[in-house]
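Need tokens for this chain, all 525 residues.
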Amino acid sequence: MDPRVSPPSRASSSLAFSVASVSRHAARQSSSVTSMHGRFPPPITQQITYRGFATSAKARPLTFPALSPTMTEGRIVKWLKKEGEAIKAGDAMFSVETDKATMDCEATEDGVLGKILVSQGENMLPVGQVIAYVLDEGTDPKSVDYPKPDSSPTDKPAAQADKKPTQQQQQPSPSPPSTQTPPPTKSAPSTPSSTPPSAVKSADASASASPSSHHDDAPMWPSVRRLLMEHNLDPSSISASGPKGVLLKGDVLQALAHGSARQASSKTASQKQPSSATTSPDQKPASTPSPYARASALPPYEDIPNNNIRKVIAKRLTESKTTIPHLYVAQECEIDALLALRTRINSGGSVKLSVNDFVIRAAALALRDVPSLNVYFVGGEEVSKQQKSVDISIAVATDKGLITPIVKEADKKTLGVISDAVKGLALKAKEGKLRPDEFQGGSFSISNLGMFGIAGFSAVINPPQACILAVGEGKKKLVLDTTGESAKPRLKTVIEATLSCDARVVNEDDAAKFLEVFNHYLSSP
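Here are the structure tokens for all 525 residues:
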């Protein structure tokens, strides 16, 4: 060894080892991040590497987007672009029915719509599923080799599900138990003296202990009768385990599970035909259908599947009624001064106000004065969040269901501005053109059914909001006016306002205070 070259020291060799270790650790982290990235749905224009090969550099997968924080699936209502058609950034490509409304999805870059994988109007699609391929500008869609559908990440569960039946088919299926009864064996005829009395007593005891068959004249619960009608079962073929031979619902369900129940229409004709002494040999007895078979023949009907909006409404309202303790407070509010002011405003200008506009403004001002009701309640965190802005959600009925567009900062708006905002939001809601920011959020809801002739009702809270105000129809009421020296009867117009509150957040005194302030602003606009 050259004496001028010093041997590598222990410190330098340790440093080299540390650098190599860091390099290998960085490589493992990089591969780990890459593998973890595949677990999450990619954005609309992200490149996806499929199992077995990489996607062509010219074909970029277009995935089904999430248009709201709560959206997990949706349906493509209509494709607005065709295969081979050029697209520009900002062009509407397809319309999506979400859990709230129907919205158009815009392109994020220029290119060509290559191949559409999902037709419009199909079943619900999960967020992140590949629905089409986008190509570079000037690319011929016919010259691109698209990945096969079975190589898509979203098709892996389906491919695995397809493999399971194949494996099950390869396994030998167990032979069903034999249902044939063995032939009777010949035995010596028994005489009354051959059977001991003890055996007769034991047989009677075992018969009394075992479940008996249900008779048609025995009492029956409505749920049991309905179950028999739906499945067209003969109750006499099912063992009844209830007291005094009453057939229970569990007996019917057990018979259905074991397949031991007999169809009601399969009763033998011998059970219904008259005796052989009164029937001629040439005459064929007519079988009488069971009353359960006649009852099970329902009139014709049509199955109407729920759209995505109604599914979300059903889920949220069920969650609300089962998890939120509702507190109800009601009050009658006089609106004679309101109606007089509305008549003067509508007759003197181009602005046409409705009673609902006054209700929205009165509720917004009441929330400003009683901010304890302008709150959210987050169940998972067990905390209430008081909102700084008074954003009123207005219930609007559409053909697809109920939706609640929001009048933001309603306490700072005039009656005219509120009226224009409500009319514009209601029109967009019925046309399905609401943006997500126009119906997501809101700190307080109002549902007014007075225009439909409803006197009063109690509304269901829309979580995570803590309150909703239900307003009924204005009606005349005869009262005794005691403001003067002598009491005089007079007619006044009142509406019934019912406040539904989350008892976990709102107390009774706060709810009463809100209705008191609301009545003040409504009766003295």
